[in-house]
Amino acid sequence: MKESRWTILTTDRVRITTWLASDLQDLAVLHADPLTMRFIGHGRPETVDEARARIAEYRDEQRVRGWTKCRVANRDGDMIGRAGFGESSAGRELAYALRPDQWNRGLATEIASGLVRWHIEHPTVDQSSNGLCAHVEAGNHASVRVLEKAGFHFVDKRFYKGATCDYFECSAAAGACTI
């Protein structure tokens, strides 16, 4: 039986979908890029084995929770990044990464705004909070602007996954997030 890809969200310029095992090479290339990974995770490029583990994790999260960080493709179907949600004490944590050749086009804002709407329309059922948060590593001014445009507000600075980050919230359940 052939595995099929599900569309999670479509915006004017991108399609956000579930992962297939065959997406490994695309994710490995994205996560091997030093510019892409500068403000993500360990702040360093990842190996193919690390990308393989991420794909497995993303696919498992999608199967179990119904949401994860997903594949982002342009209208031609080419993978240009990944975006979606991780778990957080607030509810969900928004995260995204795009190939550098896709930066400065408004795509991150388009994707983040679309995911905020998706979050509002698809509340979590197994978590105590339906809040939405994001962490931005210090110095990543472009992501701060993206989050602000998508309706997030700065809360405070926090140490998160080994780095000092600006912590943002967009609590859809409290009506603070308006898109």
Your description of this structure?
With 179 residues, the protein is an alpha+beta fold. The chain has a single domain, classed as Aminopeptidase. Helix content is 31%, strand content 30%. It contains 5 helices and 8 strands; from the N terminus they run E-E-H-H-H-E-E-E-H-E-H-E-E. The chain has helices at residues 24-32, 34-37, 48-65, 107-121, 141-149; strands at residues 7-10, 14-17, 69-74, 79-88, 91-98, 131-137, 153-160, 163-169. It has an 8-stranded mixed β-sheet with strand order 1-2-3-4-5-6-8-7, with helices on both faces. Helix 1 crosses helix 3 and helix 4 (107-121) packs across helix 5 (141-149).
Keywords summarizing the entry:
alpha+beta; 179 residues; 31% helix; 5 helices; 8-stranded mixed beta sheet; 30% strand; Aminopeptidase
| CATH topology annotation | Aminopeptidase
What is the total tally of β strands? 8
Number of helices: 5
| Strand order, sheet with most strands | 1-2-3-4-5-6-8-7
Helix content, binned percent: 25-40%
Basic shape:
globular
Extract low-pLDDT stretches: none
Mean pLDDT reading: 91
> In percent terms, what proportion of residues is strand?
25-35%
At the fourth level of CATH, the homologous superfamily is Gcn5-related N-acetyltransferase (GNAT)
